[in-house]
Q: What sequence folds into this?
């Protein structure tokens, strides 16, 4: 199970941040090898305090271990080499790299695959799988039920996804389109019962990122008199700092100041509907491979503006059906 990961304990925060900022696929920086450790050091005290406020660490490892047999995080333990070594020790003969980012981005799934692509077939995107859509929709329905029946239809659904730098979006990364497809499928399942918007969170640094930002959307909704909101962490499957701190504490506090009644739709975590969806996705992949190839057809297309040599090699390898 591939994911970004998060520090399970506060002391792991610095190494997590350093590894994260060193990844040019995720956050492109000038002089990356020099700037990344400096940024990580500066941000560590603030982020450590945030992890303390959500219980002393991220729960993402616990939930990911419930979702599949092996966990492979990108920036914190258990990391790629350790998990591969454990699988070898356990006698595993065949591996499927199952991304836990439902929507593909070169910054997330792509970054992980650049590291391991010769070692496994890949489930690289599943943002419109019916079971996943059903799990998200059921959680939204449960959250909408917290509003009175008389005013429920006036509640705005804000789908909040992790943003991307515009430099990544503008080179042709498919993430924005795939998140939009997920939102459209969820709203179809809900019969378009409520007004909705897709917004973006977790911007880092001064450069341009995909917007509008979630906090600005809340300000705008308050200004136009829409004071009931369900916020849905649409590109996140498990709780971590972006849901437990950024949404539950920061955005909730902002909404309260703006006079907005706001509730967050629960993350999927260990939802039985979600776990069944993951099992179905994995079973379909195992049944269809090798006739369908080691990945989706879409993964084999390189972003038109991509200049990353590792990504090019990965795409070429998959285009040749996993043959050198």
A:
């Amino acid at each position: 199970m591939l994911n970004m990961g998060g520090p399970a304990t506060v002391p792991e925060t610095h190494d997590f941040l350093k590894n994260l900022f060193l990844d040019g696929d995720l956050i492109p920086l000038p002089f990356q090898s020099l700037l990344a450790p400096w940024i990580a050091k500066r941000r560590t005290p603030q982020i450590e305090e945030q992890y303390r406020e959500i219980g002393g660490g991220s729960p993402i490892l616990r939930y990911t271990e419930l979702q599949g047999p092996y966990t492979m995080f990108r920036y914190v333990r258990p990391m790629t080499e350790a998990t591969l070594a454990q699988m070898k020790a356990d006698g595993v003969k065949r591996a499927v790299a199952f991304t836990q980012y439902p929507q593909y981005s070169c910054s997330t799934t792509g970054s992980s695959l650049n590291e391991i692509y010769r070692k496994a077939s890949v489930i690289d995107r599943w943002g419109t799988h019916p079971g996943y859509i059903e799990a998200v929709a059921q959680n939204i329905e449960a959250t909408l039920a917290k509003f009175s029946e008389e005013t429920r239809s006036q509640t705005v659904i804000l789908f909040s996804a992790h943003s991307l730098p515009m430099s990544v979006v503008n080179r042709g990364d498919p993430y924005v389109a795939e998140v939009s497809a997920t939102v459209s499928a969820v709203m179809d399942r809900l019969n378009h019962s409520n007004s909705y918007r897709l917004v973006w969170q977790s911007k880092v640094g001064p450069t341009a990122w995909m917007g509008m930002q979630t906090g600005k959307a809340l300000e705008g909704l308050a200004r136009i008199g829409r004071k009931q909101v369900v916020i849905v962490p649409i590109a996140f499957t498990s709780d971590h700092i972006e849901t437990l701190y950024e949404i539950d504490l920061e955005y909730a506090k902002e909404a309260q100041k703006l006079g907005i009644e706001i509730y967050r739709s629960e993350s999927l975590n260990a939802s039985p509907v979600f776990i069944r969806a993951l099992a179905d996705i994995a079973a379909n992949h195992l049944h269809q491979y090798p006739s369908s190839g080691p990945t989706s057809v879409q993964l084999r297309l390189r972003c038109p503006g991509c200049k990353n040599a590792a990504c090019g090699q990965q795409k070429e390898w998959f285009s040749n059906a996993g043959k050198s």
Remarks:
- Residues 32-53 form the longest helix (22 residues).
- The longest strand covers residues 156-162.
- The chain is about 45% helix and 10% strand.
